[in-house]
Amino acid sequence: MIKTKPWTGGTDEEYETQHFGFGAQRLKIAVRQMVEQKITNGVKGMESYLQESLDLNETDKVTLTKSCDKLIRLYCERAGPSLGVIDEEIERMLKIPQNVLLPEDEVQIEQTTDSEFETLKEEVASLRRRIERGALMEALLSAEEEELASLEKVCETAKKDMEAIDLLCKSADNGDSLKVVQSETQFLCASASFIKKQNNLFDQ
Q1: Quick one: which of 1, 85, 158, 168 could link to 76 by a disulfide (CB 3.0–4.6 Å)?
Q2: Buried-exposed string 52-69: b where 16+ CB fall within 10 A, e elsewhere
Q3: For residues 154 and 169, what is the distance between their CA atoms, to the nearest angstrom?
Q4: Residue 20 — pLDDT band, cuts 50, 70, 90?
């Protein structure tokens, strides 16, 4: 009911909030809300007391409620000029002079010279080059890691082949296997001689 300007923020409000924990705009809104709440609670309390203490019919109760609501609006409207004075006092107390710096802003007192700025630029450029070299080194290491992984696969395959050859050699060294191979070889040789003799007989 009390006319209140909406909070808009701004540089002054932000600076006041950093310094005091709240700004002038928020404090003025809070004061208006508090005053309106006090007026409403007081009038509604009076309304409840009258309804309890007086023997009123329903029509009188409705009339009393409307009258109390009207009284609340009237009080809120009449509070406007006084709240305007309070607003001015709040702004006067919370306004921070232009020459006052907050502790966290004191570092800005010392301005950076041109030479210092150039030094900072060189440091930034140096850091950028180091980052680029690091990225290149990482790429080279990744490629080398992939190549080593491929070599490991080749070595693993060669190892398996060597194991197979060793197993074959061990089998060849076995006496029974050797006898079987010799027997098969002799059988083939004998068969070849028999076939050759038969061919000679037919030729005669």
Answers
A1: 1
A2: eeeeeeeeeeeebeeebe
A3: 23
A4: confident
Question: Can you tell me the distance from the alpha carbon of 49 to that of 44, in angstroms, rounded to the nearest whole number?
Answer: 9
What interhelical angle do 24-53 and 11-20 show, nearest 10? 80
Tokens encoding 65? 């409620």
180 half-sphere exposure, CB direction, 13 A CA radius:
7
Dig out the tokens for 46 from the structure. Answer: 């009076």
CB neighbour list of residue 12: distance below 8 Å, 6 or more residues apart: 23, 24, 95, 96
**By three-state DSSP, how is residue 78 classified?**
helix
- Residues with Cβ within 8 Å of 5's Cβ and at least 6 positions away in sequence, in order, are 25, 28, 29
How many Å apart are CA 22 and CA 93, to the nearest integer? 12
| 95: Cα separation from own chain's centroid | 37
Q: Which DSSP symbol is given to 23?
A: -
Pick the closest to residue 5 from 91, 75, 73 (CA basis): 91
pLDDT digits (tens, 9 = 90+) for 146-179: 777 777 777 777 677 676 666 666 655 554 554 5
Alpha-carbon distance of 189 to 196, in angstroms, equals: 11
Q: pLDDT band at 14, cuts 50/70/90?
A: confident
Confidence (pTM): 0.48
